[in-house]
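Reopening this one. Same input as before:
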Amino acid sequence: MRTFKIGKYDIRAQPASGSAHMLRYTVLLNGRRLGALLSMPTESDCLFLEKPPKVPPLKIFQVTYRPGRPKKGAARPHEEGEGGPRIPWTIKGQRY
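Same output, byte for byte:
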């Protein structure tokens, strides 16, 4: 087992289970384990393990938007004017 420091973080390298050559790098800060990596960590990796970025809450897309296929005999939504998206700065009735 090999121990070294990167910035303020202590790194402990030990053989990874089931591998002859790979090492598992365990990141410690003040004796507290932050995490482990199979590649040589940088100071940025250690900081990420210490303070991961905030993740916004999930929006449940599948439950809120379910267009599906219309039922047989369902009324079609009426279309006004031309098909396609309406662009406010175009001239009405103009063709490209």
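So the earlier flakiness isn't reproducible anymore. For the record, The chain has two helices and four strands.
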